[in-house]
């Protein structure tokens, strides 16, 4: 099983970053530049990437106490996929977002890593405006 781990430093208060991340339906705004649309039906979310690719995700948990969102990718692209985004306060106006994804098959690593890195850049840029 492959794991991708990223920490994104953001120049905003943890509460501001979490307010933006905690709403799964607002993911296209938080990841603007990588995502262009998102829609929710119950706990299922469909996100559309800038290249037009659409994927289905299931929102597993939105944990306000730990400022943590968990989701998985469905639709047959993976044997298994589970990811979390967690906000950690570093200072009154600075935080980190820790993004961890575990998935199979390992052969998807290059694609997932490239999308994760693009997502990290967008996330850092967009959350700094919160």
General description of the model:
This is Polyketide cyclase. This protein has a single domain (2-24, 59-127), classed as START domain (Alpha-D-Glucose-1,6-Bisphosphate, Chain A, domain 4), CATH 3.30.530. 24% of the residues lie in helices and 47% in strands. The chain has helices at residues 14-21, 27-30, 109-127, and strands at 2-10, 35-41, 44-49, 54-63, 68-73, 80-91, 94-104. It has a 7-stranded antiparallel sheet with strand order 1-7-6-5-4-3-2.
Q: How large is the share of residues in beta strands?
A: over 45%
CATH superfamily (homologous) name:
START domain
Number of strands: 7
Radius of gyration: 14 Å
Number of domains: 1
Percent helix, as a range, is: 10-25%
CATH fold group: Alpha-D-Glucose-1,6-Bisphosphate, Chain A, domain 4
Largest sheet: 7 strands, antiparallel
Could you say which overall geometry the principal axes of the C-alpha atoms support?
globular
Largest beta sheet: what is the strand line-up?
Answer: 1-7-6-5-4-3-2
List low-confidence stretches: none
Derived from helix and strand composition plus strand pairing, the structural class reads: alpha+beta
Distance between the termini: 35 Å
SSE sequence, one letter per element: EHHEEEEEEH
State the name of the first-level CATH class.
Answer: Alpha Beta
The residue-averaged pLDDT reads 95
């Amino acid at each position: 099983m492959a794991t991708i781990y990223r920490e994104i430093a953001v120049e905003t208060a943890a509460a501001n970053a979490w307010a933006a991340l905690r709403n799964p339906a607002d993911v296209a705004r938080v990841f603007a530049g990588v995502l262009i649309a998102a829609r929710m039906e119950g706990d299922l979310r469909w996100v559309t990437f800038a290249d037009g690719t659409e994927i289905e995700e299931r929102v597993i948990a939105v944990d306000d106490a730990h400022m943590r969102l968990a989701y998985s990718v469905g639709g047959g692209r993976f044997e298994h996929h589970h990811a979390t985004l967690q906000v950690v306060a570093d200072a009154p106006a600075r935080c980190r977002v820790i993004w961890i994804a575990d998935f199979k098959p390992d052969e998807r690593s290059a694609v997932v890593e490239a999308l994760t890195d693009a997502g990290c850049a967008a996330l850092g840029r967009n959350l700094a405006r919160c």
